[in-house]
Specification:
- The structure is a homodimer of 362-residue chains.
- Chain A is an alpha/beta fold and 362 residues long.
- Chain A is 39% helix and 17% strand.
- Chain A is elongated, with a radius of gyration of 25 Å.
- The structure holds a DNA duplex (30 and 30 nucleotides).
Chain lengths: 362, 362
Amino acid sequence: MAVTMREVAAIARVSPKTVSNVVNDHPNVHPDTRARVQQAIAELGYRPNHSARGLRSGRTGVIGLAVPELRQAYFAELADAVIAAAAKRGLSVIVGQLGGDREHEIELLTHGLPQTDGLLFSPERLGTEDRDLLAYVDFPLVMLGEWIFGGPTDHVTMHNISAARAAVEHLISLGRRRIAVIGAHPDDETRVMGPSNLRIQGYREALAAAGIERDPRLERVVAPWHPEDGADAARQLIESGLEFDAIFTLTDSLGLGALRALGEAGRIVPDDVAVIGFDNITISHLTIPSLSSIDPGRAEIAEMAVSMLVERIEWGAGSARPARLHKAAFDVIVRESSGGTASGTPKTSSRKSGAPAQTLNG
Amino acid sequence: MAVTMREVAAIARVSPKTVSNVVNDHPNVHPDTRARVQQAIAELGYRPNHSARGLRSGRTGVIGLAVPELRQAYFAELADAVIAAAAKRGLSVIVGQLGGDREHEIELLTHGLPQTDGLLFSPERLGTEDRDLLAYVDFPLVMLGEWIFGGPTDHVTMHNISAARAAVEHLISLGRRRIAVIGAHPDDETRVMGPSNLRIQGYREALAAAGIERDPRLERVVAPWHPEDGADAARQLIESGLEFDAIFTLTDSLGLGALRALGEAGRIVPDDVAVIGFDNITISHLTIPSLSSIDPGRAEIAEMAVSMLVERIEWGAGSARPARLHKAAFDVIVRESSGGTASGTPKTSSRKSGAPAQTLNG
DNA sequence: CAGCGGATTTACTACGTGGTAATTAGCGCA
DNA sequence: TGCGCTAATTACCACGTAGTAAATCCGCTG
């Protein structure tokens, strides 16, 4: 069994409580005593027992991060950023994969992740119809990338609509008029505030603003959002015989698949078809051609989400603070797939679409 | 505060201990009592307190997974598989990122991850010189992807040498003779058993077996192994003016970068240069051209690693069981970058290079 | 030198659970 | 009806920590 405070106390000739006081940096510990205890700690290699601490204090120092799948580059990079942000604050992160299982997601929202102080949750199957579930959540929770309207929960998300609009406006600025979009979700009425619908809305807004008539046949439904799905959708689009000179894929993963399908079909990117994605995953600047994208400010999202969660944890479970909503700033990254250079430099820095942070009443 | 056994016991008119017995499926609980308790549990929404359990039993039900960075696709996909394998066994996974920090890695090996029952560790900076550290490890530990020779620790790894050899043999079978390799590590004497050196060894063996003289200038040193680094190395190789008709990149990440650099330079893959990587990350089959690779059996590695770790945990800390070594089977996946088809079908199924599992004496 | 007040240290306890051992209930059989 | 045995339930306690409140120490004043 590991070394305990009791043993340290024996060596340092103090009470266990004094050891506790030293470990927790309490005031009013005599410097000599502190030194003696610290030496004993070093000598024995004492490390606090987290379970006991958790039992005593009700805190575990661990937060949960729930995502659909880590193998999707976007979530992997998000997890990377979240873990880094949590580490800065001395927190560990338990990563859970829900794999698009709705039951799992509901169960998680109902009970939380065991062994954690709070949860960052990036749901895939929840929607507005599940708003009521949020009312019964009795643990610190911050939702990621999804804004369930009116839910009494903190959200950290992106400017989905305006960023998507900016992406399509960029394509329009290249002179493209027949712009397809890949990644709409099927009959998604329950998730009107989901990323798919929001980005589609941005797409439509951009078309409307430019006076381009919308062609529903160019809005391709795809779920899930794996690269293969993007490739399949692009192939179907090509085979459909519809005319198009640009594609906006709702994620970079889809975009990678689309680039592949276009290449297979002999369509030149960007000359025949310009492509822009969304998420700015790492690999996008190294594909051939490199993929234009929307950088959603991942580091900012992670940092803000962890910070909000920590606040909720510190406020305590019962506190009825109003829900907050934070939308990270985004950038349009123009790369070769839409006529830019290899690496792509930020073109539009957009905090234009409203203040980055707003507070809603819960 | 959450519902406790005491409250459940009060409702069910039994003692707290009986609730405990029900929760833990003890024998000798009367069916009627069990039913009553279960109803009380449902009624109150009781959930066991993990901290208290951990304190009492010394187990947390959480394992740690330490990798360099989740944003590297290989580690993200590994983490995905590990989390899935752990979930099957009811375990949660705390993911830690060491970011190539040697001090961090040593610290981790010395103390373990707090709050966990054991650790899966994929080190980046440790080497044979750190073997002694392993002797003092006093928690369940399974090393991933790295075999520190003679360490008293379980390892789950790949057939690095023979898989690399198979990759290069594949290139040779295409008639290539000037085969470059990207990803050697600089002066890596302390990590003679590290993946880099092992794969380089496989490369050299393949050349030797084919009677091809080795050209040290074709062995490009690159660290770390991000795609950009692969691109840089390939660019330097091209600029060096050296003649080469194939590249073996020690990881797919490097390979993606190399494809990019070759494309930029106008070299046609595979006609001018055939390329094969290692790891078979998801995106490799969707690049243009799709990237040939070695599939190291990630699911098998994750499954085996978790299973070994669980065994160690169940054996208890003091048990001096011998270290075990498991090498997963691998496959050569031939795709367009070395003359195959888009998707690539397993070409060589290789358990040829020894039994998949061996046991060493610790 | 007694007395005071703040600084420092300590005893005691509870957090929620589950092991141990002891107690009680229930049943068959004489 | 009473005994013996197993099934079922319980009391008690410890796991390691930290909050609370009480005890002790120390330097100084009068």
